[in-house]
Amino acid sequence: MILPILAYGDPILKKKASDISLQYPGLKDLIQNMFDTMYQAKGVGLAAPQIGLPIRLFVIDPSPYAEDDIEVQDLKKVFINPKITQTEGDFCLFNEGCLSIPDIREEIDRQERITIEYMDETGKKFKEAYKGIAARVIQHEYDHVEGKLFTDHLSPLRKRMLQSRLDQISKGEIKVDYKMRFPQKKKRKQA
Ligand code: ZN
């Protein structure tokens, strides 16, 4: 099932999400729906707050970047209750987008290596290290469960320059080819 993706400006996107247990209602279907929604929108990651659930869960599949980084070729994964325990290495810029912020891409500075602890949908616990594009995508999705967006990494000046476009996104004054929910869209009477 395809779920609507919350657009920039929705307060849920600014909320730090909470851990869940494996007994979370409908978890298996929820994960499947998140993958379906992510693929349909041509994204490489989707976090639960983006579909309106303030819980620590995200999915990734960065395989469209496999040409640039072979390590992401087979990296379809679910992260439940993730915790980044270490961030290391040089800062590097990468052109990021976000399904909640359509049509805006920005160069975002992040460190190149992370260590993350999480569990999968069967409750198996992992502690893994990632670098390159995998680390990039994971840090972006991890930000979502921490209540952060890539725009929070921009300089105040750059953010001011983008503000009117961000406001348009909140109001739904944008063309987008996947299902979204806009926090400030005025309800029109149906003709
Ligand atoms: Zn995002």
Bound molecules: zinc ion
Number of DSSP helices? Answer: 3
General shape: globular
What is the average per-residue confidence, as pLDDT, rounded to a whole number? 96
Content-based structural category: alpha+beta
Low-confidence stretches: none
- The CATH topology assignment is Peptide Deformylase
Distance between the termini: 28 Å
Order of helices and strands, N to C?
Answer: EHEEEEEHHE
Report strand %: 25-35%
Indicate the CATH class.
Answer: Alpha Beta
Number of domain units: 1
Biggest sheet character: 5 strands, antiparallel
Helix content: 10-25%
Task: Using the CA coordinates, give the radius of gyration.
Answer: 16 Å
Strand order of the largest sheet: 2-3-4-5-6
CATH superfamily: Peptide deformylase
CATH architecture, by name, is Alpha-Beta Complex
Number of strands: 7
Give an account of the 3D structure:
With 191 residues, the protein is of the alpha+beta class. It has one domain: Peptide deformylase (Peptide Deformylase, Alpha-Beta Complex). Helix content is 23%, strand content 27%. The chain contains three helices and seven strands. It has helices at residues 27-40, 132-145, 156-171; strands at 5-6, 45-47, 57-60, 77-96, 106-119, 125-131, 180-181. The strands form two sheets. It has a five-stranded antiparallel sheet, sandwiched between helices. A two-stranded parallel sheet has the order 1-7. A hairpin with a 5-residue loop joins β5 (106-119) and β6 (125-131). The longest helix has 16 residues, at 156-171. 30% of the residues are buried. The model has no long low-confidence stretch (mean pLDDT 96). Bound molecules: zinc ion.
